[in-house]
Amino acid sequence: MLIPVFVLILALVGFADSAYYTLIHYGVLGFGSPYMPMICDHKEGVCEMLANTDWASTMGLPNSIYGAAYYVLIAVLAGIRLATGAWPYPKLILAISVAAALSSLYLAWMMVYVVHVLCPLCVTAQAINIVLAVVFLWMFHPRVPAYMRPAHQT
Predict the structure, then answer these.
(1) Using the 8-state DSSP alphabet, how is residue 42 labeled?
(2) 30: closest CA among 54, 53, 18, 46?
(3) Cα–Cα distances in angstroms (integers) from residue 58 to residues 21, 37, 87, 130, in the given order
(4) How many separate domains does the chain show?
(5) pLDDT, tens digit, for every residue of 57-110?
(6) Domain for residue 113, yes or no?
(7) 45, 41, 47, 38: which is closest to 18 by C-alpha?
(8) Of 56, 148, 150, residue with least CA distance to 111
């Protein structure tokens, strides 16, 4: 019961983070805004600068929108697990979570080594994606021995 609740909490935090960054991307929030978190406001325009790089969007949409959709999906699936006692579509969850983690690692690399800026909102989402992938790998990967998996994972 704890793992689905943990996954749900991570998904909700990730959704809030992604939604907030989407507002920054579209200029609703910016440097000097009273609603800009202190973590983004510590250097002038760090979040806005990253939001305007080529790597902040994919197919014309901000990456944060894809992140928000991913977190909604994970939250819904965790809710289904809490309601029914079984994870729906475990292979799909595993594939999507690993893809999200790999894209997060790529974007983190770009942020650090190409753009040379650290965005706390981005790092938060990237960390959540990696933790979710590790949790789902632990629960669903067929090569993980059954004795190492959490009890009542299905």
Answers:
(1) T
(2) 46
(3) 15, 25, 29, 20
(4) 1
(5) 778 888 889 999 999 999 999 999 999 988 898 889 999 999 999 999 998 998
(6) yes
(7) 47
(8) 56
Q: Which domain holds residue 130?
A: 2-148
Which tokens go with 43? 């250097």
Torsion of Cα atoms, 96 then 101 then 104 then 109, to 10° = -140
Distance CA 21, CA 13 (A): 12
Give the CATH number of the domain where residue 105 resides: 1.20.1440.130
pLDDT in tens, 19-38: 988 888 787 766 566 666 66
* Residue 10 in tokens: 């991570």
Element (H, E) at 61: strand 61-62
Beta pairing, strands 61-62 & 57-58: antiparallel
C-alpha dihedral, 107 to 127 to 122 to 34, nearest 10°: 180
